[in-house]
Amino acid sequence: MKPAYIELVSVFFVIAFAALLSPLARSTTLEPLSLAQLTSSAANVVHAECTGNQAMWRDGEIWTVTSFRVLENWKGNSPGGIQVWMIGGRAGPVTSYVPGAPRFRIGEEAVLFLEPVASGSFTDVLSITAWGEGTFRIRRDPRTHEMRVTQDTAMTPNFDPSSRTFRETGIRNWPLAKLKARVVAAENSRRRMT
Predict the structure, then answer these.
(1) Model's pTM, two decimal places?
(2) Which residue of 91, 125, 135, 192 shows the fewest CB atoms closer than 10 Å?
(3) CATH code that applies to domain 35-193
């Protein structure tokens, strides 16, 4: 049985450690991008279908390369087939899990906000802008057959430090046509301003 003072000292150190980390936790809260900001940041925006995934080692990290068939370009001019690189995946017996890195199933459709990556040995490689913020999953409504989209970030509530509550952010269950209209309008507005 532990003496009471050892338990008290242990509790004190846990509280002191948490207090020291709390300013760091506040500093890592990210403000979500608006749809206009997301559109402006992306080099290309596409409606695409996943055709395959392959994990590989590159520069000491595991990367998942997902192939897509571009169904429609909303911004930019992507070719008919593209590959998107995201860190993490499973290569042989090794799995690298990176929270927030989108993964796709073959046959799944999505709207992707894409940007080129140019760092280290990576050149002419596409990645998803702001990861989950730039990923909109498409599903077909079983009743109406309408295509609807939900942003990956809408699936997990975010902590709002000012109100100290969790709140839902992101786009959820929008018609695909509505998202497309907003993206095209945001890009047209940006072009007029430049």
Answers:
(1) 0.79
(2) 192
(3) 2.40.50.120
